[in-house]
Amino acid sequence: MWKANQKNTVSEKWKIKLNCAIILLKLFRENICLKFRSGSKICIKEPCICGGIFDVSAKEKRLQELEQLMASSSFWDDQETAKTTIAESNELKSWIEPISDVKRRLEDVKSLLADAGSDEQFMQELSQEVLVCEKNLEKLEARRMLSGEMDKANCFLSVNAGAGGTEACDWAQMLFRMYERYAENKGWTVEIIDVLEGEVAGIRSGTIRIIGEFAYGHCRAEKGVHRLVRISPFDSNARRHTSFAAVDVTPEVSDDIEIDIKPDEIRTDTYRASGAGGQHVNKTDSAVRITHIPTGVVVCSQQQRSQPQNREYCMKLLRAKLYELKMEERQKKIDSFSEDKKKIEWGSQIRSYTFQPYTLVKDSRTKVEVGDVQSVMNGELDSFIYAYLKEFGSAR
Length: 396
What we know:
Strand content: 15-25%
Number of domains: 2
Order of helices and strands: HEEHHHEHEEHEEEEEHEEEHH
Strand order of the largest sheet: 4-5-3-7-6-11-12-13
Structural class: alpha+beta
Distance between the termini: 55 Å
CATH topology of the largest domain: Alpha-Beta Plaits
Low-confidence stretches: 29-51, 277-281, 337-347
Mean pLDDT: 78
Number of strands: 13
CATH class of the largest domain: Alpha Beta
Shape: flat
């Protein structure tokens, strides 16, 4: 019995060592050699060409150069250049610091393995520490895929109810709340732009603005049709219903990107914003709807107090929609040369959420499955988004 326990402990040690080795290999392309008691050994060797998939050594070298520039007395003579330099320095630190943290944690685990002995609880704690490192590495790998032109931008996320009537409107509201919680979990800021209530329950459509670093890069993974299967609370016969809702994500276009919108190409309509009634009834036409006549794109805003504020938000959203149309046209030209490339279009179902008779959320693109539906509806979407970025992030 003691020998069996000892054998399990030894195998657990080597499992931890191998995990540490693989993570270090990905980070730094280190030559790693693991020796066994029997005399055999495993050597994992990689040529140190670029310092690993994150090119840590090059980043550290560049950061040292920038720090020397910032230390000079004439650094603030050109304020625009100074701001650019500081921004680049902060960007490099945002990579180097988490990578250094992972390396430090792994070195601590390797040094503590020698003192672990046959203490199973201690081995479990070390295993958990390696798992934390793996999750942090997964986040870094996903972020490495966020290299698109607009991935760093804020975004507008819209949810529209599809087939299913009241059930679909309720499903749209559930998704709307899910993305609000996801953004809040990330520490991002959420602003509600427009909400159109359903006739009985839920919402027919809703748009939020998400403000945060790489908001669009993450949220673009959610663009597509989402399918719900559950026993409807609106059906007195308790039958199982299938509902659909579409999610659209567009990046917020900054003022330095030129989007030509001519005054004679837009039509502006004003109307009274919807509300809860009573004291909340809006007595002025503060809500704004703008239609871009050449493309047929329609945007609305009614959450702000005044008409000028709603018009400003409408113009931001319109610029984002028109920019997205341009990017889609460019992408179609690129895809025409590559027939094998996977496409995500309006009619495609990207994810299914099953509430009854069993609980399961399955992504049809990456095949990722999660059994805890409630955690997903509470905004725990990282497993789906990271899997999408790994598979499709570099193929755009």
